[in-house]
Amino acid sequence: MADVHHFTYGAYNPIAAYLLAFLGSLLGLLCTARARDAHNRGRRNRWLAIAAFSIGGGGIWLMHFSAMLGFDVPVSPVRYDLAMTLLSLAFAVVTVGVGLLVVGHGERSVGKTMAAGLLTGSGVIAMHYTGMEGIRISATIRYSPLLVVASGLIAIAASTIALWFAISVRGLAKVTGAAAVMAVAVCGMHYTGMAAMSIELNPIVEPPGGIRPLTMLVPILLITTATIVGVALSALQAMTEEEFTDGAGNPKRGVHAENPQPWVLKPASMGAMRLTPAARAVAAGRAAAGRPSPGPRPSPRPSPPPAQAVPPATSGG
After folding, report:
1. pTM
2. 3-state SS, residue 130
3. Which of 42, 115, 154, 170 is positioned for an S-S bond with 189, CB 3.0–4.6 A?
4. InterPro entries under this entry (predicted)?
5. Contact 108, 167 (CB under 8 A)
6. What does the pLDDT average to over 198-225?
7. What is the 3-state secondary structure (H, E, C) of 1-61?
């Protein structure tokens, strides 16, 4: 058996992995909170899709490969297959997304959450071991069945907890605490799966084909940047639509109610600004009945004061 190092760069790898898991979980839980407040199915699905990329892509997949940068076998070069690596990303995002869609619609129930957690946890397991299958070394990788089962149970439990938090937790303090718990569970699943692995060297050590671990930082950073930009733009668009439209998707008509094009910031007329709310209601009723609405009444001019009577002059003695 060959020596395996999981912390080649010291504490950097577990700390960076935990922070990525925490930030991805935090953003995902914030998005699921917005999904619960959405007024229609389309907006809810959009927020859940953003949450799937945040939790599955950031909190799970990026955490996995940030921790894998610390994986090293001193007697053999370590390389990665890009296709298998991207396949593991797809497993993470798609299964988390399906789980969020299951629990994000309809009545909340323990049974539905557990079923979705089982599905999502299976996807997380597939993500981890697909990523491990993408490792290229001049050796044979073997796994301890007991620790593999333990990592699977942790993945299912972590996924179920994450989905339950997604449909029940509110408030920034509670969401932050839930994200911290989720990050611990995700990291625990990863390092349990890594502990299940053992390396048996081949008789002849040959340089394997694939991408160097540090070279993996380039596609990972590109994917991360594109994902963050896409998530931010989608979130801003969804927030803008919710700000300026009602629950049915119709533009809100507030200050500029008289403007036939509500999206154009056109100031109202001076006459309409002078009318009181009661007068506006009367004007709207007259317009519906086909009668012209009266304009603002001019303020009455003050009447002149009455002329004072001059007393008659009296003749002197």
Report:
1. 0.68
2. helix
3. 154
4. MHYT_dom (IPR005330)
5. yes
6. 71
7. CCCCECCCCCCHHHHHHHHHHHHHHHHHHHHHHHHHCCCCHHHHHHHHHHHHHHHHHHHHH
